[in-house]
Design brief:
Distance between the termini: 70 Å
Number of strands: 5
Strand content: 15-25%
Oligomer: single chain
Strand order of the largest sheet: 1-2-3-5-4
Number of helices: 3
Radius of gyration: 28 Å
Helix content: 40-55%
Shape: rod-shaped
Structural class: alpha+beta
Order of helices and strands: HHHEEEEE
């Protein structure tokens, strides 16, 4: 393959990486750019040697640099929607019981809730789970 063809492989892999953000195609793009440089300098002339070095460089990059890159670029996963309510504290507005739905106020919003024990109104509770659109709560132990 020619230098231009390896540059095109690098560009395609780089473009795929931009859209996938999986840190897999990045190493292919870097390896292809490296092979383009070696082909341009006349170091690699046969397709077999180019593919062998390409595979070797890609493998080395994935093994030794991908874990580091994942740690550097790792973002904090932010829990959103109702799952973010698990672990939050609230106050019961009505009595709750095992067979009795009631209302709780969590983060300024009123939710339908249930509990596995009797809980009176104006009791501090902790959200332990979500079942559909109803919160599962238990008394907060202070």
């Amino acid at each position: 393959m020619t230098t231009l063809e390896w540059i095109l492989v690098a560009i395609v892999c780089g473009t795929i990486e931009i859209f996938s953000l999986g840190l897999w195609f990045l190493w292919l793009a870097i390896s292809a750019a490296f092979i383009a440089l070696l082909v341009g300098l006349g170091i690699l002339s046969t397709l077999e040697s180019q593919l062998l070095v390409f595979a070797f460089v890609t493998l080395i990059l994935i093994i030794f640099t991908r874990p580091l890159a994942l740690r550097l670029f790792k973002t904090e996963d932010i829990v959103s929607n109702v799952q973010a309510l698990v672990g939050q504290h609230g106050v019961t507005l009505t009595n709750l019981g095992p067979l009795e739905y009631g209302q709780v106020k969590v983060r300024g919003e009123v939710w339908t809730a249930f509990a596995n024990e009797e809980i009176e109104a104006d009791t501090r509770v902790t959200v332990t789970g979500i079942n559909g659109v109803k919160l599962s709560v238990e008394k907060t132990v202070d």
